[in-house]
């Protein structure tokens, strides 16, 4: 084990007593037994926040450790035991404490807690005892997705490689090499598709039962309340899908047609389209700004130092065990930022393979880390950290843009122009995918028949894919491969969490517009919005960052015009 991995393992160590409910139960009970008056609420909340922080940190570290070792049965079992033993007791204790808080006579929350007080009230109304055990089942089901996909390998050119390593081949300028990699990935995905089909049917049944237990008509209605979506409605999301279809799909189609023409391609095949990294129109090899994870860390360190001294210092503090960047067998193939609140430490997990896309993803995930750092510094109460989910991707996506002018040390001017173009193209190409993902989930949980089958899921995904990606030619290919596109991380492990990426990408473009005029002011606004944490509603958070909370057709049309000008 390398020194870096040893440091990661130390960070993720959770004492045995922190994995048992009996450790936390007395602390929650003491809060329940306390005499509570309006004057005493602030100190009582601080004690409650401290208990929740300890518990949240234990859970987060166990979860991260499990994602880094999907092939280790003992590590998986330790996390599942925590979920089964601790989480039900926590949910019941949290409900009791919430009811105690709401019953305090004469208590008026301070301005920085008013929003979360309302959320507590709404969450208490949504609580059902029947959903405690069922919620544990749901957590365990979602975790199985990581085990299934984390142990997935791809046979490519006679060699077994990880999924991220195989995906890197999709950027090869050689069309035959791309096709070979695409077919290998498709074969690997089909090998696990039956397991994912079965898991999805279990999840759908569980999720709809959670809604019924809460006296709600469907899982979409349940999720709307659980995620505190009060600033927009499902109808607004449906209008967003239509706006993307009308304003963005044509732009993406033209963009791909132009690339295909310049490359001499008669049509765009699935192996010619990677929404995260569109083909280079001049047929140049993909950018390779680094080789190892350590080199990527150095690259990012220099960029952050150039952008802002404090951001550079924050990133430097993560380089002692709070980054795990290399791809390897047995490691969950997604990328994310986790947060450990007791020490106010973020943790970034990635699977880098040496591409320019890896650079963008690292800036994205470290943007999340900055959100944790700044909100944690400014907000003592755990619930006031981070932000509503409609804002939470702005720190990450804006960082993708704010670093664009700070990569001269790693890229030549020509390479930097290519990287910048990829970033802008990526926004355009991402929005149809985001609309498709969101539209699929609205159908799945609010419109699909009660006797839903896997064939129904596949059929709906095909319908939506033809709508949002009409420029890809699938003629002569196995339709099952296309139909299984819904077998994606967020569908399994973060239901209904996807439109937020679109909202925040639009806002990130707006922040970049500011930065083109006044980079210092844009960065100041960025930090100020992060420090607000979850103490302000979405419209105020967006305004603090210098943008609007909008994702309507007119707004999208204007931003697409701006991106088109920049790309031109």
Automatic annotation (TrEMBL):
Q: Which UniProt keywords apply?
A: Hydrolase, Metal-binding, Metalloprotease, Protease, Zinc
Supply the EC number(s).
3.4.-.-
Q: Which cofactor does it need?
A: Zn(2+)
Instruction: Extract the InterPro entries matched here.
Output: Pept_M3A_M3B (IPR045090), Pept_M3A_M3B_dom (IPR001567)
Q: Where is the Peptidase M3A/M3B catalytic domain?
A: 171-559
Q: Which GO terms describe its molecular function?
A: hydrolase activity
Pfam families on file:
Peptidase_M3
Q: Kindly give the SUPFAM superfamilies that the UniProt entry links to this protein.
A: Metalloproteases ('zincins'), catalytic domain (SSF55486)
Main enzyme class: hydrolase
Give the family per the record: Belongs to the peptidase M3 family.
Please report the name of this protein according to its UniProt entry: M3 family oligoendopeptidase
Organism from which the protein derives = Deinococcus oregonensis
């Amino acid at each position: 084990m390398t020194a870096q991995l040893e440091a990661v393992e130390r960070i993720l160590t959770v004492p045995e007593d922190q994995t048992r409910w009996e450790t936390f139960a007395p602390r929650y009970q003491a809060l329940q037994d306390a005499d509570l008056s309006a004057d005493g609420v602030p100190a009582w909340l601080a004690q409650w926040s401290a208990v929740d922080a300890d518990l949240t940190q234990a859970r987060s570290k166990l979860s991260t450790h499990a994602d880094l070792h999907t092939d280790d049965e003992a590590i998986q079992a330790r996390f599942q035991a925590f979920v089964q033993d601790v989480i039900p007791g926590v949910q019941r204790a949290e409900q009791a404490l919430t009811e105690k808080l709401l019953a305090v006579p004469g208590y008026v929350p301070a301005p920085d807690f008013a929003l979360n007080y309302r959320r507590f009230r709404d969450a208490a109304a949504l609580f059902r005892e029947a959903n405690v055990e069922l919620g544990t089942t749901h957590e365990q089901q979602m975790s199985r997705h990581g085990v299934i996909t984390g142990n997935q390998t791809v046979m490519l050119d006679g060699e077994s490689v990880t999924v991220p390593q195989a995906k890197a081949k999709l950027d090869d300028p050689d069309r035959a090499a791309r096709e070979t990699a695409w077919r290998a990935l498709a074969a690997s995905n089909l090998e696990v598709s039956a397991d994912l089909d079965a898991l999805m049917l279990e999840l759908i049944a569980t999720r709809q039962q959670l809604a019924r237990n809460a006296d709600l008509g469907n899982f979409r209605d349940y999720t709307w309340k659980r995620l505190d979506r009060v600033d927009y409605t499902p109808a607004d999301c449906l209008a967003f899908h239509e706006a993307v279809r009308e304003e963005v799909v044509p732009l993406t189609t033209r963009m791909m047609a132009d690339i295909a023409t310049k490359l001499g391609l008669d049509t765009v095949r699935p192996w010619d389209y990677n929404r995260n990294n569109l083909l280079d129109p001049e047929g140049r090899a993909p950018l390779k700004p680094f080789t190892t994870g350590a080199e990527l860390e150095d690259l990012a360190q220099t960029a952050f130092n150039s952008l802002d001294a404090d951001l550079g210092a924050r990133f430097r503090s993560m380089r002692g065990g709070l980054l795990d960047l290399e791809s390897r067998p047995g490691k969950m193939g997604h990328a994310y930022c986790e947060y450990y609140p007791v020490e106010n430490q973020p943790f970034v997990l990635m699977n880098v393979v040496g591409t320019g896309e890896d650079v963008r993803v690292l800036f994205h995930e470290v943007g999340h880390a900055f959100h944790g750092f700044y909100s944690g510094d400014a907000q003592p109460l755990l619930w006031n950290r981070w932000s509503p989910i409609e804002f939470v991707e702005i720190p990450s996506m804006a960082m993708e843009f704010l670093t664009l002018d700070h990569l001269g040390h790693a890229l030549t001017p020509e390479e930097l122009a290519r990287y910048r173009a990829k970033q802008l193209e990526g926004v355009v190409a991402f929005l149809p995918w985001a609309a498709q993902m969101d539209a699929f989930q609205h159908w799945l949980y609010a419109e699909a028949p009660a006797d839903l089958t896997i064939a129904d899921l596949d059929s709906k995904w095909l319908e939506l894919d033809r709508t949002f990606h009409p420029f890809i030619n699938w003629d002569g290919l196995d339709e099952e491969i296309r139909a299984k596109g819904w077998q994606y991380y967020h569908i399994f492990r973060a239901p209904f969490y996807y439109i937020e990426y679109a909202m925040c990408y639009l806002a990130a473009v707006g922040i970049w517009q500011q930065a083109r005029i006044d980079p210092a002011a844009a960065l100041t606004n960025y930090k100020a919005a992060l420090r607000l944490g979850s103490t302000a509603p979405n419209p105020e958070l967006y305004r603090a960052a210098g943008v609007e909370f909008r994702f309507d057709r007119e707004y999208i049309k204007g931003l697409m015009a701006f991106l088109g000008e920049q790309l031109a």
